[in-house]
Every structure is written in C-alpha cells, then in structure tokens.
C-alpha cells in the first residue's frame, strides 16, 4: 500500500492536471475518491482541474480567434460542426461558455468557434472561469462524497462479513430449493398432460 501511496503523491497531481486538460471526467471522479481517502488536498485538486480545463479552452479560443473561419474550413470535420456551433453561440451566448465542458462531442470545437465569434476574450475568460469551477467541483466533489460512501459500505461489509456470507449461502440455498421445486412442478405437470 505504501508504494501506491508514494506513486499517487508523486504523480497523482500531474495525472489530474492531464485529466482536466483532456476533459476526463473519469480522472476527476477518481481524484475526488482519492481525496476522500486523504491522498489529495481537495481545494488544490479543484484548482488544478480548473487551470487544466481553462488551458484547454483558451488554447482553442486563441486558435479560433487568430485562425478564424479559414481554419474551420480547412478541416472538414470542424467545418461541418462550425455552422451548428455558431448558431449555438448566437442563440445562447455566454450560457454556451458556461456549459461547454458538458457538451460531449463539441468540447473542442466550441472554444474554437467562440474564438471566431464576436464574443470578446475578457467575457470568455470570466465565464470560462465560472464554468471551470462548476465543472471541476461537480465531478471532483461527486467523487469525493462517493468515496466516503464507498469506504463506509466497505467498512460495513467487513464488519458483518460472516453474517453476509451466511445470508448469501441461505439465499443461494433458497434459490436452489425454489429452482428444484419449479423443475419438479413442471415435470409433474408434463406427466399429467401426456
């Protein structure tokens, strides 16, 4: 266990930053679970996730801002999604910035399109920060509270392990008796039908 603790302490924060950078909700959930067990500092983990996710968004915003529409038209995959994305920007504005981390399949193209759109960088920065805090907090705190619940369940199971096994054996025996009863009942009914 000491070896795993060392690895998590040494590389865990870097792994969490990478997970936030690629928008890996699974990484954030796992980080929250690890924080519930004392491996990570919870506020530091949330801050790291916010920074990683904002870095991702801002790189693509800047690419969109300076690359513009010609860049979107250069890549056919982006071109097909860009018109829909621009319609979303026009329709939802800053709400789209807040929700962009939760838009699966559009996660990279939306900041790029926001860079092309008339939304100013400072507005993007403020709402992206708010969205980053919400996104990171939802997944990390979700993992954090799930980790506490899981630890409690495991503790309960280990405390009542012998009772649990006895209960499981009784349920299996009852299942076998019911299964044999149903089998015999069907056999008897088939014999009467013939």
In short:
The protein contains eight helices and no strands.
Task: Describe the 3D structure.
- Helix 1 packs parallel to helix 3, helix 2 (25-36) packs across helix 7 and helix 4 packs across helix 6 (109-116).
- The model has no long low-confidence stretch (mean pLDDT 80).
- By secondary structure, the chain is mostly helical.
- The chain folds into two domains: 2-155, no CATH class; 160-193.
- It contains eight helices and no strands.
- 87% of the residues lie in helices and 0% in strands.
* First-to-last CA distance: 65 Å
Mean pLDDT: 80
The count of helical stretches stands at 8
For the largest beta-sheet, the strand count, sense and barrel status come to:
none
Q: Roughly what percent helix? A: over 70%
What's the number of extended β-strand segments?
Answer: 0
- Uncertain segments of ≥5 residues (pLDDT<50)? none
As a whole number of angstroms, the C-alpha radius of gyration is: 26 Å
What global shape is seen? Answer: elongated
Number of domains: 2
Give the SSE string: HHHHHHHH
Q: Which structural class matches the secondary elements?
A: mainly alpha
List the keywords.
194 residues, 2 domains, elongated
Write the layout of secondary structure elements.
Layout: H1 2-21, H2 25-36, H3 42-74, H4 76-92, H5 94-99, H6 109-116, H7 121-159, H8 161-193
Helix pairs in contact: 1-2, 1-3, 2-7, 3-6, 3-7, 4-6
